[in-house]
Amino acid sequence: MCGMSTDEGLKDASSYLSGMTKFPEHAVLLSFEGPDPYAMIGGLGIRMTELASALAKGGVQTRLMFVGDPAAPPTQRTADGVEYFRCCQQVSSKHPASVYDGEHEKISEYARITPGFVSDQIVAPAFARGERVLVMAEGWYTAPAVIELDRLLRERNLRAATTIVWNAGTTYGLEMIDWTALCSAALITTVSRSMKFALEHFGVGALVIPNGIPERLIAGPDPKLRAALREACKRRPLFLKIGRFDPDKRWLSAIDAFAEVRSVFPQALFVMRGGREPYAGEVFARLRHHGLDVRELIVQPGNHAEFLAAIAETTAPILDLRNYIDEDILRALYAEADAVLANSGKESFGLVGLEVMAAGGLAVCGSTGEDYAESFVNAVVCDTADGCELATYLIEIFGQPDGMQSLRENGAATARRYLWPTILRILQRKLAYGERIGGTSRGPH
User: Which of 353, 405, 408, 422 is nearest to 381 (CA)?
Assistant: First the structure.
């Protein structure tokens, strides 16, 4: 889909935005989620943090404006040159649980403060220097801010210096958006064909720009940690599933499939990490229904020795990880698991599957937004919520080591085609088209 060779995608960062239509000198990313643990709820926080880093490495002066930790500094510059602006900190101090705690008050505050700041402090100085600004907003929460920013820029005769993009990364909250106003204010993009079709239900036309992954993931996990995990994981097959406790994540299908696999391979182990959502009750009820004992594990991030010991010592079929997993362990698990069950029934893109491929692992995906996944070529793709379908594929794949290795190798090659430098060149071309049609999108009709 991305149409670039691996070598081209790995070129020096300073050159990957050259050679085509000139990219704006400045980028402003508008998002609720961001790099702080307070704001890193899911894939959006990862996406925005890594996108900002990739733009900065490409030579674009980049700011990320997010609803950050109320106790952290209001502004911060990262090692790669990104400027963080933590918005709504006074409101967040009254809602300390997470970025989405008190979300409606934050939406209003975000729409009140960000448009004026972007217009006066970023766009106006850039315009005076003859430079352009790209504003990329994400999520229904930012739509009011985008609409107000467009109004302000037009009022101040600055709109021609600004490209405004609003991206749909999930179906959540789409019904809350004033689509007529948003489409008049911004170019609408999304991360997959599945999401493009979701927007069609609202009469909205969108350009597809895939998600990306950072180049560091291609190196794979720490070889020593991976070898230690392989030594600890003597029980096989080993399955991993990480995600919110939500029906869309198809936890029940995964559990049903594991129970069936275990009837063929009694030593199978299922490592899981959920959240605090109420749906957890149904998940654990299904585990009890199948008579699957659960061992809970709480290990402080970075304590690899304790984690490895727990993997080696557990006799229960289910190991339930109850706290945050650091990236080093997570990537090693992706690589060493016989399959990572990212088998969601509704995914806008499915970033986890791509991260698994980058680690050299075998991804099991759903059949929605994972445009990169080709069934039995670079991944296992489930079309239904029937655990029997998933179990059939897992039993067959585990019995064919050569076929499993081929899927892993093809997956790793796929991941290399979705590095951020490659995705930004796709963005560059889509922006060129967007400017030719006036910088906004077709709205409801």
Answer: 353
Report pLDDT digits (tens) over 267-318.
999 999 998 889 999 999 999 999 999 999 988 878 899 999 999 999 999 9
Q: Residue 281 contacts by C-beta under 8 Å, 6 or more apart in sequence? A: none
Residue with tokens 């995705």, as numbered in its chain: 423
Long-range pairs, 70-78, Cβ under 8 A, ≥24 = 70/38, 70/96, 72/36, 72/38, 78/53
H helices of 290-419, in order, are 304-313, 327-336, 351-358, 387-398, 401-416
**Whole-number pLDDT of residue 20:** 56
Q: Note whether 192 and 365 are within 8 A (CB).
A: no
Token pair listed for 284: 């654990």
d(CA 155, CA 148): 11
Edge to edge, what strands does the sheet with 363-365 contain? 294-297, 318-321, 269-273, 238-242, 339-342, 363-365, 380-381
The single-letter DSSP state of residue 23 is P
Place of tokens 């655990």: 387
Listed as ranges, residues in the chain with pLDDT below 70 are 1-16, 18-21, 445
Distance of alpha carbon 8 from alpha carbon 19, whole angstroms: 13
CB 367 within 8 A of CB 353: no
**pLDDT at residue 441, rounded to an integer:** 84
Q: What does the pLDDT read at residue 41?
A: 84
Whole-model pTM: value is: 0.89
